[in-house]
Design goal:
Layout: E1 2-6, H1 8-20, E2 33-37, H2 40-106, H3 109-118
Antiparallel strand pairs: 1-2
């Protein structure tokens, strides 16, 4: 910001005109007129500052929007993972219950006894029956 100051030379010229007009009084204090002049450099600085501030705000908005979009994508991905995991958990629970039911059926004493008899196992202490082979005699 530049300040243009008009000093006493202006006042002297006005004093000379006053003298010629018959006024000889000298002002008590010198009159200084300050004029603010807007230069192009100030306009350039303001344009530079506004441009930089606009770029800063633009980058903030772009960063905020992109972070929001990425955050929502990650959240949706994790939500899908939770749905898949809960489905897998339910399937595993159903398979486990089927296996437990099968183990219970197979560990039942009646089932074990039936299997042993079907495979030729004889209970301990049971009378052993030997099969005798009879041959047909030709005399009869």
């Amino acid at each position: 910001m530049s300040m243009v100051t008009l000093d006493r030379k202006v006042n002297r010229s006005t004093s000379a005109s006053r003298r010629s007009a018959g006024l000889t009084a000298i002002p008590a204090a010198p009159v200084k007129v300050q004029v603010k002049a807007r230069t192009k450099s100030r306009q350039r600085v303001m344009q530079y500052v506004l441009t930089r501030a606009g770029m800063f705000v633009g980058f903030l908005v772009i960063g905020n929007v992109s972070a929001t979009v990425v955050g929502n994508m990650v959240l949706q991905s994790k939500s899908n993972d939770v749905v898949v995991a809960s489905r897998r958990f339910a399937d595993a629970k159903a398979a486990e219950s089927r296996l437990m039911k099968d183990v219970e059926l197979l560990s039942n004493s009646v089932a074990i006894q039936d299997w042993a008899l079907a495979n030729g196992f004889v209970p301990q202490g049971a009378p052993v029956v030997l099969a005798s082979v009879q041959t047909a005699s030709p005399e009869q």
